[in-house]
Amino acid sequence: MRILLTNDDGIDANGINILAQELESNGHEIIIVAPDKEQSASSHSITLHQPLRILHRSENRFAVTGSPADCIILAEKVVLKKPVDLVISGINNGRNMGEDILYSGTVAAALEAMFLGFKAISLSLASYIDQKFETAAYFMNKMLDNGLHKLIAKNEVFNINIPNVDISEVKGIKITQVGHRKYQDFVKEQTDPRGRKIYWIGGAKPLWSKEGNTDFKAVSQNYISITPISPDFSKKESFEKIKNWVNEFSHEGR
Predict the structure, then answer these.
(1) Residue 205 and residue 128: Cα distance in Å, rounded?
(2) pLDDT exceeds cutoff 90 at 15
(3) Of 136, 140, 168, 246, which sits with the fewest C-beta atoms within 10 Å of its C-beta?
């Protein structure tokens, strides 16, 4: 297959390069269009108020001076000379589960690819230390060999999280729902050298709900988590109650 790779950790990150090597060694044609530096937690931002540059690093390797979503837009509009079969965003440095998918540049890049009509996967390794990117790359390649990408529907992204264990320790695959997390000490207050208060967002490890069939629960048990996600924010079950309110409002307003 012809596969476009991107990420939010930057073009020099281990995850994307280990994945590219694994996929290329198994016969896939790989094009990388990724940020020139880390863009973690950039969510779905696009750059509107300054120019972007595309830096040609080597054959089929391009760095973009912008966000992950910028990378997908420029890949589709400028870099790609012919279509790709699949877009993979990752391997991300750390998990993308629960509400974190809303902040993730990795997931945002996959969603932007989906908006532009590509089949897309966001791929993350669930650890920030002693990372086993080879495990994630190995299983991503195996899942493609078995046709996982063919199951991706229109307006859908597969968000995949891989446990940070050796290949032999992965127990299998679970289809999961988006979990829920709650951060503790999310804002840290400090003092700068001049005695002024400064703040850091991001605290201790989050507390994850272990209820239900969630992404976190699966990965914590050494299963690969596949969560089909779709950016449909319309809560249709609430239409009726609001409709009743609109009718009453309109009647009283006459």
Answers:
(1) 11
(2) yes
(3) 168
